[in-house]
Amino acid sequence: MKHEQILANFDGRGTAEITLRGREVAQSDRIAAVAYELGYRLHEKDIVTRGQWRLTFLRDDSPDVRQRAQYAMDRLRAGGPLFSHSAPTGVPSVPGTQIGPMEAASARQNMTAYETHGSRGLVVIAALLGVAFLALAWVAREAAGGAVALLAVAALLGVVAALVPCWMRNWYERNRRKVARFDQQRSQRWGPPPPPAPPPPARGDQQGGHEGGGS
């Protein structure tokens, strides 16, 4: 999918649905990064098959996001890039690892997955596997070596089930820090969005000014 085709999906419509097939699946992070710049958030990632994904994005109507999206569109119309990988000349870079737009998009998707599903699913899977291995150990109890090996696997899965919530929280926190660093770097590269133009003077004020000048 070409860059222009990706941009065309985020033209201000309320919902953007994109189906990726085959090699296009590898572009999911890039599409999410473009969507973020243009004021959209990933609502759902439906993995239909291994080679077919359906991404649904919703327009974010919060004022700061709409202002950011307008700033990005103005930059594109002026011939500038959607993404920038370095700070402007003469501006020192934010210290630390530089986070790219696609890496930040992947981190945001990971955060959304954790916020939506948490770690309960992985805990349940590990626990069920542990119970299954315990049952197998009971069935193979007459074969001492095999039963011990199965019990060891069951115990390992029990430890994994106990530690998964901590691992997942740490994973979420790493992704959150990536997103925060990217936003900091992005703010430095582009600067804050320009303030909106002041409203024109009211007609009565204009007339009053003319009358005052003539008196």
What's the gist of this structure?
It contains 7 helices and 3 strands, in the order H-E-H-E-E-H-H-H-H-H. The chain has helices at 3-8, 28-37, 63-77, 101-117, 120-139, 144-190, 203-214, and strands spanning 15-21, 40-49, 52-59. A hairpin with a 2-residue loop joins strand 2 and strand 3.
Kindly describe this structure:
- The structure is a single chain.
- This protein is 59% helix and 12% strand.
- It is mainly alpha-helical and 215 residues long.
- A three-stranded antiparallel sheet has the order 1-3-2, covered by helices on one side.
- Strand 2 (40-49) and strand 3 form a beta hairpin.
What would the keywords be for this entry?
215 residues; mainly alpha; 3 strands; disordered C terminus
